[in-house]
Amino acid sequence: MSIDVEAYYRRYGPQVLRRCRFLLRDEEKAVDAMHDVFVQLLRYQGALKDAAPSSLLHRIATTVCLNKLRGAKRRPEDREDELVLQIASAEDTESRAAARGLLDRLFGRVPASSQDIAVLHLVDGMTLEETAREVGLSVSGVRKRLRALSAVLQELELEAA
Amino acid sequence: MTSPHRTPDWLLERIALGELPPGELAAARARLAEEPDGLARLAALEADSRATLETLPPARVAREVEARAARPDAARPFFRRSPAWGLVPALAVAALFVVLRPSGQVETGVAPGNGPEVTRIKGLAPRLVVHRQAAAARPERLADGAAAAAGDVVQVGYVAAGREYGVIVSLDGNGAVTLHAPEEGAQAMPLAPSGTHALPRAYELDDAPYFERFIFVSAHAPFDVAVVLAAAQALSGKPDASSAPLVLPGNLTQVSLTLEKQE
User: Fold this and answer.
1) Residue of B nearest to A7 (CA)
2) What is d(CA B202, CA B133) in angstroms, rounded to the nearest whole number?
3) Which of A75, A90, A105 is the last residue of a domain?
4) Are A4 and A79 within one domain?
5) Does residue B103 sit in helix, strand or coil?
6) Are A99 and A34 part of one and the same domain?
7) A62 and A3 within one domain
8) Structural domain boundaries enclosing A12
9) What is the β-pairing status of strands B147-149 and B253-262?
10) Considering only CA atoms, which of B233, B219, B251, B220 is closest in space to residue B179?
11) Residue A122 and residue A48 share a domain
């Protein structure tokens, strides 16, 4: 599939930028990340077979931003921000090889990372079913992946108790 | 967390793009229309999309993306800045309290290039930058919606993102409108085109309740301060004064930052 970056950006760029703003809480970093999202599309267009680009770009933006947040020192500004940071910094062995893993996940060679799934479910408010559909897993698969981020989830359970 | 009674942002994006299965799209649109602010959120999202495409034109973004993709490492390290703030102690006045600063220039920067053929996009929409003088040496950057209180001394700055003229006003929970910049004259002030620039004076928040909202209006051509003041006066005192946009001519761009006042 060949990608016209300009046409893709015209249609999806604002959505991607809003997503990056939401996760990074910094306009300059968000714009930078937005460009990187489209770089991923351009460089790997040969592997792109997605019929719903908005869903794919939402995931790419989430993953790109989580990778940028990993190790970043920020002061959480609200609960959602804190949650994103917790998820981004949580131990997720699948995501350690971030660059290779990102591309593999984006193009379906391996399932989405637990961290991506956690953001979709815990921060974006997708139901387990919606999350499962978003990342191409079963609901039980999503539950299993969420358990991989046990530290974050335990903390959330303590907060909810 | 997202309220189950409110269409989440990710779904709002899909609705705007029409990228849902037909049945789901119709149902999602119907639910959105029943929500108190549903259609307004959709309209705001679409307006934001238009503003993004104006600020970051597709051709320019495509060039930047292609330039980055041509480099061996797609991910570029962030350009980091270190603002140097110099708020001075405050002196009380009746409402917003004025503090002189030795210099309005805070920071400018150019991202490090990766070769002469690369045109680095500044990539910023005009925005407000507000810091609160803290007990510690380093002022605290305040985000939209941050809590603030009477007595807080705040420094307002702007990023022009290429706009050439601007006006900064504020509205508060008492319905008062304050002109912050320009300090004099009937015309919008000339803006520094790049970097973050603080206004020459900082302000102490008074005891107005509920909120203090700063609005930065900018344009590529000169415009009258009176246009902005009239729009601010028209909005002040209304129930949605803390969030609604000013009604302005189409050539003017506006961005705002609201501080939530604590008792």
Assistant:
1) B58
2) 9
3) A90
4) yes
5) coil
6) no
7) yes
8) 1-90
9) parallel
10) B233
11) no
Separation of alpha carbons B215 and B244, rounded Å: 11
pLDDT tens track for B88-98: 222 222 233 33
Q: Say which residues have a Cβ less than 8 Å from residue B225's Cβ, sequence separation at least 6.
A: B167, B179, B182, B185, B186, B187, B188
**Inter-chain CB proximity A124 and B2 less than 8 Å:** yes
Gap between the Cα atoms of A85 and A76, Å rounded: 8
Phi, psi (rounded to 5 degrees) for B72: -60, -40
> Peptide bond preceding B222: is omega within 30 degrees of 0, i.e. cis?
no
Domain range list for chain B: 9-54, 56-261
For residue A93, which amino acid is it? T
- CA B217 vs CA A75, B84, B229: distances in Å: 29, 25, 11
How many other C-beta atoms can be found within 10 angstroms of the C-beta atom of residue A79? 11
Helix axes of A98-106 and A53-69: crossing angle, nearest 10 degrees? 170
Residues 6+ apart with CB under 8 A from A96: none
> What digits encode the pLDDT tens for the residues A122-160?
778 788 888 888 877 788 888 887 776 665 556 555 554
Instruction: Tell me the CA end-to-end span of chain A in Å, nearest whole number.
Output: 49
**A147 interfacial to chain B (CB closer than 8 Å):** no
Q: Which two tokens stand for residue B90?
A: 């405050």
- Whether A39 and chain B come into contact, CB under 8 Å, resolves to yes
Q: Identify the domain boundary among A90, A114, A140.
A: A90
Residue of B nearest to A22 (CA): B9
A18 contact residues in B (CB cutoff 8 A): 9, 13, 45, 48
E-state strands within B124-249: 127-132, 140-142, 147-149, 153-159, 165-172, 177-181, 189-190, 196-198, 201-204, 211-219
* Chain A contact for B31 (CB, 8 A cutoff): no
Token reading at A51: 């019929």
- The 10s digit of each residue's pLDDT in B108-163 is 232 333 332 222 333 457 889 898 876 555 678 888 888 898 888 888 988 887 78
> DSSP code of A93?
G
Q: Are residues A75 and A135 in the same domain?
A: no
